From TrEMBL:
It is an enzyme of class 2 (transferase). This is 5-methyltetrahydropteroyltriglutamate--homocysteine S-methyltransferase. InterPro entries: Cbl-indep_Met_Synth_N (IPR013215), Cobalamin-indep_Met_synthase (IPR006276), Met_Synth_C/arc (IPR002629), UROD/MetE-like_sf (IPR038071). The active site is at 697 (proton donor).
Amino acid sequence: MASHIVGYPRIGPKRELKFALEAFWDGKSSAEELQNVARDLRISIWKQMADAGTNFIPSNTFSYYDQMLDTTAMLGAVPPQYGWTGGEIGFDTYFSMARGNSTLPAMEMTKCHYIVPELGPDLKFSYSSHKAVTEYKEAKELGVETVPVLIGPVSYLLLSKSAKDVDKSFSILSLLEKIIPIYKEVLDELKTSGATWVQFDEPVLVMDLDSHTLDAFQDAYAQLEESFSGLNVLVQTYFADVPPETYKVVTTLNGVSAIGLDLVRGEKTIELLQSLGFPSNKYLFAGIVDGRNIWATDLSASLKTLKSLEEIAGKDKLIVSTSCSLLHTAVDLVNETKLDDEIKSWLAFAAQKIVEVNALSKALVGEKDEAFFSLNTAAQASRKASPRVNDASVRKMTSALKNSNHRRTTPVTSRLDMQQKRMNLPMLPTTTIGSFPQTKDLRRIRREYKANKISDDEYMKAITEEINKVIKLQEELDINVLVHGEPERNDMVEYFGEQLKGFALTVNGWVQSYGSRCVKPPIIYGDVSRPKPMTVFWSTTAQSMTTRPIKGMLTGPVTILNWSFVRNDQPRFETCYQIALAIKNEVEDLEAAGIQVIQIDEAALREGLPLRKSEQTFYLKWAVHSFRITNCGVKDTTQIHTHMCYSNFNDIISSIIDMDADVITIENSRSDQKLLSVFREGVKYRAGIGPGVYDIHSPRIPSTDEIADRITKTLGVLDMNVLWVNPDCGLKTRKYAEVQCALTNMVAAAKLLRAQL
Ligand code: GLN
Ligand code: ZN
């Protein structure tokens, strides 16, 4: 019997690391101060795990940015432009890669929020960050024996990209032989320092891998085997089940003594273990406590599952663990002052999950904490039966959905014609994506309103004034389709979560996305419905200030779902359909109030795509269906826009078409025009499209010529009469001075091209 934690949040229960990082980056604190905050966080995390009785405590899961970047530092895989000349990598080089510096841009960040290594055949690797060893020793000095965690060599390479200018024939896996020697150095040093276990995170093992890649795994671990002697090696997987072919390879890897499997997202893991068995000489780390969500574990059910696993793996070979690193859940429920006791009893954040893991592992050897288990049983029962969770009228409406595909009957081309007759827009119409700069004043007003420091009237007045300012500005700039600027919104998901039934908001439920960036996902605990209109007042207020069309602004159901903590007591699609119905009510109320254009953002639709191909079709089907539900009921003359923060649509283009929006605006300014050709080649994309003409993530102001040039290039790929002109994304992180100049140039570019018609 034993317990293990895959990894732990490092941002701190009150985002201590975030504030320390930002103070350091702003030059307001020293490197030493930052290191001290980081050290204190690590120490408290290790103590917490040790006090709970955890046998296998991870180290080296702390990071100043992300663990992929840490691995890049460990391997000395610094792209040459950063001018690093060797030696231990310090904050300078590390943060330059992460965030850029005065002369160089940062390395690319993926949508999965890590800094992507840029590798090529000429890159020299060297052991250049001893962080894994330092952290191991640091814990040891405190009397805590830990399992150092490394990103495994194959996953590291497969999550990397080829550097620019590298020949297309270059295979990234060919670098294995160069990085393995460095892993060996790390292992040797860890052993010398006293480590007896090491954990290799190999998340790519849950993806669809070809036999060539599986061979690479075998190869890599065979080469490492020599350094494995004297060490127990855990290969950790997560986020899905391991495909059967891969499972056969993983369970026979050389020198590996333990395998970690995700029993939560890995819905077929149990089946796999039952049908293929588990090697008798290895340990099974059973990830039964959900690392990606905030629900309390059903302890009795989990104990049953674990007992059945004991029969497969052997009593002394089963280790109770989390499904993945707890990095993906909130930190500590203790700091939630606004949630009521009933909801709190249904939840477990990282700190509580550690206790659950240990309670399960003790129960397995007959040391069951009866009081703890019965409290848990009572909470599970109260959640199941609660009228706050179950709303019969919502269930009735969602089950009725299954009888229709919810398509608008008129084809998009005819709809666009009718909409054009109504709105009479010029060629290359201009618009923005929704938000305008969120000034300090604006944030203060919202904060004071939330804290009841200013009255309803004062708040309404301030927001109305802000909207008025934004409308006037857009009119002066001569933009065609206007927005109200979203001044009342703190966040595009939280805003709706606050108003929908079935949602709860936390005060400290932060999850780190990378570096100092954190998100605070709402918790969806019950059947979702919309008690009253959420945006109609602000959109109509804006419309009353102008004769130009105002674009109503909503977040779509799939994005709300993907950026929330979701119920685990019903399938995701069920929850998504409920949200879709709530948004549908809002769309129809906006239309009835005279709003002619409505944008339904689906920024996170692609991000929710399952890792495995076999599951993607089903996801896309219900995701796209949910989107259509929101707007299938509007008149042909009402124009539905959607917005997505990416442009690589190659693999999902047919789903995008199937969403059947009238206009889609996408991010494009950082990619080349080739990506847009998917909208043309071989598919019948007939709707309007606005590929972002400039990058809103950068303070740089694009010139009129530059934007005109971009549009001209795009016109080489897309038809003039479907093209819209807009920025990449919302403007909320920019300053007014920047926005004013950039939009002036954007409108000028559109006019320039119209004049050439
Ligand atoms: N309408 C939102 C905004 O402009 C969209 C943001 C997003 O796509 N992430 O802020
Ligand atoms: Zn966006």
